[in-house]
Structures are given as C-alpha cells and as structure tokens.
Amino acid sequence: MTAGIILLVFGFVILSGSALLAICWAAKSGQFSNITEGAASIFDQDEPVGVPTDRFPVKNSQ
Amino acid sequence: MNSPSLLSTINPATEPDKLDSVERAEIDASTRGPVLLFFGTAIFWLLMGSLLGLISAWKITNPGLFDSISWLTFGRLRPAHLNLVAYGWAVPAAIGVGLWLTARLCRVPLLHAKLLISSAIVWNLGILVGLSGILIGDGRSIEWLEFPAYATPILFIAYACISVWTIIMFRFRKSGHIYVSQWYLFAAFLWFPWLYATANILLVWQPVQGPAQGAINWWYAHNVLGLWFTPIGLAAAYYFIPKVIGRPIHSYYLSILGFWSLALFYSWNGMHHLIGGPFPAWMVSASVVASVMMFIPVITTAINHHMTMKGHFEALNWSPTLRFIVFGAVSYTVVSLQGTSMAIPALNSITHFTDYTIGHAHLGLYAFFTMIMFGSMYYIVPRLVGGEWPCANLIRWHFWLSAVGIILMVGALTLGGLLQGLALYDVASTFRSSIEFATPFRVLRGISGFILMGGQLVFAYLFVQMLLKPGSQKKSPAHFDKSDNSSNDSVAI
Amino acid sequence: MNKLPLIFVGIFLTFTSAWIGLVAYPTLNLANVEPIPDEETGGVLPPTTSGMAIAGQKVYASAGCMYCHSQQVRWAPLSTDIAKGLGTRQTVARDYIREKVAFLGTMRTGPDLSNIGVRQTDANWHHLHLFEPRTVTEWSIMPSYRYLYKTQKISGQPSNDAIQGLRGPHAPKPGYEVVPSVDAKALVAYMLSLKKNYKLPESPEPTAK
Q1: C83 half-sphere exposure, CB direction, 13 A CA radius
Q2: Of these four, B35, B156, B431, B446, which has the most CB atoms within 10 Å of its CB?
Q3: ipTM
Q4: Phi and psi dihedrals of C147, rounded to 5?
C-alpha cells in the first residue's frame, strides 16, 4: 500500500518532470517556430511533394 | 519535382550528396527483423483472438455450446479474446508501425535489432503465459488487466526495452525538425509504460482497496485506448495520408494543437464508464466534461485530414494503404463523437450496460485502429521484404470483408444495444425482454465476426506469401519508382 | 506563434491533473474507507463476510461472472435501478470495502447482482441455477457451470450437499447424485452474501413519491 504510493509519487515526479523538460527543450530549439516548413519535412528529393508513393500491385502484362 | 529537397533547406544535418532513397532504404532495412516479427506474431494473435471472440459471440446465443469445458466458459473466453486482440495484436502492431515510423522520421537506422527481436519473443511469451492464465481460471476480472500477476512483469520488461529503444533513436535522430507524427509516437511510447505500470502496481501487485479500483481501472482502460492506440493510429495517419498522396498536411499548426488537446482531454475521460457508480460526483462530472471537450481534438483532426485529402480522393482507387487509413481516420471521427455522446447522461442511462458499449469498443479498436494498422502494413511490408504484394484483388477482398464486416458488427451491436437498453430502463418491461430484443442482433454480430475473420485470413495469407516469395523485386526497396505510377510493367504479379 | 510554448505547458499541467484526480486521489482517499458501527445490532456496516464468501470472490473472478453481471445500483434520477427493484438505495464506496476486487461491472447481459442475496436466499436454488440455468429460468442465456459440480454414485446415504430438484437432460441417472465442489459452495456463499439492504448514512433510501 505505502510502497505503491511511494512508487507512484516517484513515477509522477520523474515522468512529469521529464515531460516538462521536453516541452521546454522543444520550445527552445524552435520546434514550434518553423511550423509551416515542418509539414514538408517528410518529403525529400527522391519522394518530393506531388508524387504519390503507394498503389495497388499491378499484374505483369507479359 | 516541383520542390527539390525542401528538407535540405530546413535541415542542415542532411548530406546533400547522399541519395535520400539510399538512406531511406538502409533505414527501412535496419528495422526488418523486429518489425516483421512483431507484425507476424500480431497477425497470428489477431486470428486466435478473433476465433475466441467468434466462439464467445456464438456462445451468447447458444449458451449450451461447450458448456461443460471450464476453459471455454464465456467468462474466460471474453477476457481471453479482449487481451489477445489488445495485447497480442494491437500492441505489437502498434510497436511495429511505431518502430518503423520512428526510425524513418528520426532518419536513423535501428541499431542492435537483435535486442528488439528478443523483446518481441519475450512479449509473445508473456501473451502466451497470460492467455493460459485466463483460460485456466487465474484471470483477475479487471477489465483490460485480466492477465494474472505472473504474466504482466514479463510484458512490462519486454515493453520497457522497446520504449527505451525508441527514446534512444529519438535522442540520436538526424532530422532537425520533429514531425507531428513523432510527437504522437514519442508521447505514446512514454505514456504506455506509465499507464501499464501504474495500473499493475495499484490493481495487480499491491491491490488497493475495492472501491478505489474502479476509478484506476477505467483511468487505465480508457487511456490505453486514448493515449497509446489513438496516438499511434494518428501518427500513422498523419504520416501516411500526406506521404501517399504526395501533399503536405493541410494545417500543420492544427495537427500539433490537436495532439496537445488530445493529451489533455482524453486523460480525464475514463470515469464515464462508471457514471452512477460509487464515486464522488465530481470525478464522474469531470469525465463527462472532458468527454464533451474531446470534440476539439477530434474535429481538428477530422478537418485536417479531410482538407489534406480534398481533391485527392481518387487516390483511394489506387492506393491500398490510403484506402485502409482513410477508412480508419473517418472511423476515428465517428467513434470519438459517439464516445462523447455516450458520456452525456441522457443517452448514457439507456446505453450504459448494453451491447452498445461493445459496438463502440469495436468501432474504436477495429474500424479505427486495426484498419489503420492494416493500411500501414500494406505500406511498410513491401519496403522491408523488397517486393510487391502478390495480388491486388486479394487486397481488395481484405478491404471489403473488413469494411462490410465491421460496419455490420457495429450496426448490429448499436441497434441491439439501444433496444436492450430501452428494455432495461423501462420500469414496465421485464429483464427477459432485454435479452429477446438483443438476440437477433447478437446473431447478426456472430455472422459479422465470420466476415471479419475472412478478411483477416486473406491478409494472413498475403503476409505469409510476402515472407515466403515476395512479388517482383523492386529496383529500390525504399520507394516505388516514379515510372511505377505511369507504366504498369515495373510492378508485377 | 510565440505564445505556443506557454499554451503547451498549461495543457500539459492539466494533463497531469487527470493522473492526480483519477489515480492519486482514489488511491489516497477511496482506498481507506472504514466500516462504521451499526447502532441497532452493535456490529459494523457493511457486515463482515464469511471466509467462504471471500473464497467465493475468487471463483467469481475466475469464472468471469462480471462480464455479464454488474454489481452497482445507480442513483435514481439517472437510472430506474431502484424502481426496478435492483436495490433500495444507491451503492456507495463503503459497500465494496469487503471485496478484494470491486466487481462493479460494465454490462447487464445478465441481471445486476448487488442484492442477489436478498432476492434469492436458497442455496439449493443457486446450485440448480449454476448447474443448469435453464431448470430455473427457461429463457436464461447464462452458461452452465457444470464443471464446478461432480456427478457421483450414491453409496449408502445420499449426500447432504446433493442438489435437489434437478430435471432435464443433465439430471443425474437414478442412483446418482450431483454434489457441488468446494468452489461451487464458495461461489454460492458469495452470492448469498451479496446484500446491500443495510442503511448507510451517505446513501439514504429515496423517499417514496
């Protein structure tokens, strides 16, 4: 019972502390400032915007 | 084409001379072992779990079925079904998709894949132990936490290892910007061990006194959906929808706002399962309010996905991934709005103890989460085995069996649950009538289970084919050549 | 745009509030509810339960009864539970302090069991019902729990424990009898102990209209 509560308090302090640090870090390193460019970060030279990357397999015509 | 290397303009870490496709192929390949193992075992448990669900669905309309076999009694089959599909299928599927997405989005290869392979083996061992525990009668009758106390530490150890690994990848990521999917993934990988450890300490290892258990139980059971399955599902949707159609997400700002409002409101929701229960009124009220507030993240996400898809709906015709994921994303909106409505006392007093809730659960875990996982696997597996899915028509069969099956199941349970609930609520009607109203819909639910399982068998067949003899090799396993989109001969069989 | 971090910190702090409210609060408060003295009899409320009934809770969990049966009477404006006779008053936290696991339940595929010990006081009825539910309620969809019982040949005197009044396809042949296992007896003891007909100050019985 008491062991459970102690564990909970520990978990709470560690997890909430680390999450808070994560937010501070994210804010500092500019994660929230270049928000419009961020959306394009999953595209690159070989898979640029405008090119679909998935389709049904098509039977070989041979 | 139209925007050459947007990435290099915002990410100084990118080496401009290294081909992106080569790097991507290397990263994809590094995740092959653990991700395929997680997917394979997940599909196996999905079939087993569905089979148990099917038997329990038929037992409820034929109570005499197998009724002298203790381990096939309804009260053991039902938790066995839930735990298999939740921890045997959904969690490993989420881990597989999560690992692959994390590696890709962090732009780092997965190192020491053997460690993750062993944790996959340990996890599945834990599932086997837990399943046997429930069937021999050691189940704890705490919903979502039925696995006996000797099974949960195994699962926790396996999971902790995976969580640590994703954090390491995140720490050493090469991409400067954190894409919205990474927010969801990172948070989910942190939240789940927190949820699981808290619930297990307080309910299984050092159980608190009876009355407090209900609150913790539903805090866990609702949050495992909202803070683990939902973020992973949304992370996949936020990556695959733009990636497949080749168009950035409509409003990136909204997507990040959606993430944080989800974290806030979802976490308070759980108590709406206990409306009217033996708890202080403020706890339940807070849950009802938070459930109504869920409107914000849900509508945000729905608008965002719709605006991204706008003008690209014809893509549903040619992309299997998109087809499953859009079905899942639409279901997410529906299931969340339904969940909000169910927390409102006027409707809750009718539906609270009925099949309506079961329908809601399947809408969430199957129509939303499982469909998104199927879609993700259709994208990921070809890039891991380096070959194409063997048969387009079987994929179509899988989709339509799943879609029709789940709509039928949810429809039957919803209607049946409403009638059952009205009979339970009406002072003049007997308990017998609540059973009689629900019975035809329960038969229909059993039939829909067969349809769903048909879809799963098709998928399992396709997956095994991919492992044994993948379709024609692609020049680069990381992505389809652009020529694939215009001509038919480079993708085959 | 620059306000974003501030917003996120706020949202995050509210998120942890859920943990405090739904986990820490019940752990610290709801988990330490004590019985109160019963002025009429000099005992305590809720009354203590027998060892057999406590053993029966394990059987109840192991058989998964709670997947179809709830054990809670909801308050009157929200539900018709009291009007339908599930209990005379709303159930509150103190009602569950004797339970290892509080089987509140989320389904009423079968009837609520908060007060089954008040409605059905006969142990033989419970045994009949568990052995073959359809002998007592022909439309019942409850599974049979025959695996908790043993059919044995009567040698000499019939056992005092044997179930009386079995009929239908599962009735024992002449010269045989069905006796409950320890688990079945414990489960029935638990069923009979499920009574919430005592008075608690925090849950007054609603006055009749």
Answers
A1: 13
A2: B35
A3: 0.90
A4: -70, -10
